[in-house]
Automatic annotation (TrEMBL):
<feature type="active site">
    <location>
        <position position="172"/>
    </location>
</feature>
<keyword id="KW-1015">Disulfide bond</keyword>
<dbReference type="InterPro" id="IPR018188">
    <property type="entry name" value="RNase_T2_His_AS_1"/>
</dbReference>
<dbReference type="InterPro" id="IPR033697">
    <property type="entry name" value="Ribonuclease_T2_eukaryotic"/>
</dbReference>
<dbReference type="InterPro" id="IPR001568">
    <property type="entry name" value="RNase_T2-like"/>
</dbReference>
<dbReference type="GO" id="GO:0003723">
    <property type="term" value="F:RNA binding"/>
</dbReference>
<dbReference type="InterPro" id="IPR033130">
    <property type="entry name" value="RNase_T2_His_AS_2"/>
</dbReference>
<dbReference type="GO" id="GO:0033897">
    <property type="term" value="F:ribonuclease T2 activity"/>
</dbReference>
<comment type="similarity">
    <text>Belongs to the RNase T2 family.</text>
</comment>
<dbReference type="GO" id="GO:0006401">
    <property type="term" value="P:RNA catabolic process"/>
</dbReference>
<protein>
    <recommendedName>
        <fullName>ribonuclease T2</fullName>
        <ecNumber>4.6.1.19</ecNumber>
    </recommendedName>
</protein>
<dbReference type="Pfam" id="PF00445">
    <property type="entry name" value="Ribonuclease_T2"/>
</dbReference>
<feature type="active site">
    <location>
        <position position="168"/>
    </location>
</feature>
<feature type="active site">
    <location>
        <position position="97"/>
    </location>
</feature>
<dbReference type="GO" id="GO:0005576">
    <property type="term" value="C:extracellular region"/>
</dbReference>
<dbReference type="InterPro" id="IPR036430">
    <property type="entry name" value="RNase_T2-like_sf"/>
</dbReference>
<keyword id="KW-0732">Signal</keyword>
Length: 305
């Protein structure tokens, strides 16, 4: 009996997925493919913060170029519109919008690669995608853990979560040079870049726990108490070192969005984000009370376990 089989027999109390992993690793039957691009060549050029290079960035796999003003964006929504289908918001958390590559001057490109267009409902001029959902791409790489997190924290309004994830990839990641297919070299496996982007979005999102940052300053969702824009800005600035963009609906009185601006040292995948002041003016009123509304009854659920 091989030692890995012995381990398997002993591991009778572990979960099914842990057993599958043991089988894969122990007997080498089918390993989960990695999703790492090849950044080896990046050692040949100096690492810099994006948009802060003093010489030309030769290898654009190594730093988001153009598109070095990176925005991690989040939503505060009070409902999804698909509650009946079980599409709910995570209790105690803002939700993910995306990770956007603005140019250093604040302008931006979108839908940069028609061969990686997976958005089922793109704007006019871009062909709609009708193939399998991007969730199937993630599953093909054995990344149930990633799908699980995305299903809890990356929530759409009025349409499926998968459609939203596809939209974010095709609109923004295709314009982010560190996810270019060419960066993966000859061993590129189809959709590797998609999985890699989703991982990067989550990693960036976790740097900005908006709900907890606000909560620690007494700014909690309430339908009875409102807050001032400057109070909200100061709370977030005290933890990130910069003033993010805050978006409001209802004539600037209902808080609905936050965008954290940054320059990235190295790649979006694994690099370090330096948070910077927003270059976009807030759409929240600086004089009226700002409402940070409680979610509608039945629109949120507990996801921490
Ligand atoms: C930084 O790199 C980009 C991309 O190669 C280049 O267009 C830009 O001119 C560089 N900036 C400076 C100040 O050299
Ligand atoms: C916004 O304010 C304008 C002018 O005061 C008003 O006419 C409009 O109805 C308001 N809209 C909303 C959504 O409250
Ligand atoms: C709080 O107010 C918002 C905005 O009017 C509403 O959508 C939401 O359902 C309310 N939540 C609760 C728990 O009453």
């Amino acid at each position: 009996m091989s030692s890995s089989l012995a381990i398997l027999l002993l591991a009778a109390t572990t979960s099914v997925s842990a057993l599958n992993l043991d089988i894969n690793l122990g007997l080498g039957l089918q390993s989960v493919p990695s999703t790492y691009p090849d950044f080896t060549q990046c050692l040949d050029q100096p690492s810099v913060y994006s948009c802060e290079n003093t010489t030309t960035i030769e290898n654009t796999c190594c730093s988001p170029t153009p598109g070095g003003l990176v925005l991690q964006t989040q939503f505060w929504s009070t409902y999804t519109g698909l509650e009946r289908k079980g599409q709910l918001l995570p209790k105690g958390s803002w939700t993910i919008h995306g990770l956007w590559p603005d140019n250093c001057d604040g302008s931006f490109a979108q839908y940069c690669d028609a061969s990686r267009q997976y958005d089922p409902a793109p704007p006019t001029g871009v062909e709609a995608y009708t193939g399998p959902g991007v969730d199937t791409f993630v599953r093909a790489f054995g990344r149930e853990d990633l799908l699980d997190f995305m299903s809890k924290y990356w929530i759409n309004q009025g349409a499926s979560n998968e459609a939203f994830w596809a939209h974010e990839f095709s609109k923004h990641a295709t314009c982010t040079s560190t996810f270019d297919v060419a960066c993966y070299g000859p061993s590129y496996k189809k959709h590797q870049d998609v999985v890699d982007f989703f991982d990067a979005v989550i990693r960036a999102y976790k740097q900005y726990p908006t709900f907890d940052m606000l909560g620690s300053f007494g700014i909690v969702p309430s339908n009875k108490t409102s807050y001032s824009l400057s109070h909200i800005q100061k709370a977030l600035q005290s933890q990130t070192g910069a003033i993010p963009y805050l978006g409001c609906t209802h004539n600037g009185t209902a808080l609905s969005e936050v965008w954290y601006f940054s320059h990235v040292y190295g790649t979006e995948q694994f690099g370090t984000y330096k948070t910077l002041d927003s270059t976009t003016a807030s759409t929240c009123s600086s004089t009226e009370p700002i409402w940070y509304y409680e979610r509608s009854r039945g629109s949120e659920h507990e996801v921490r376990n």
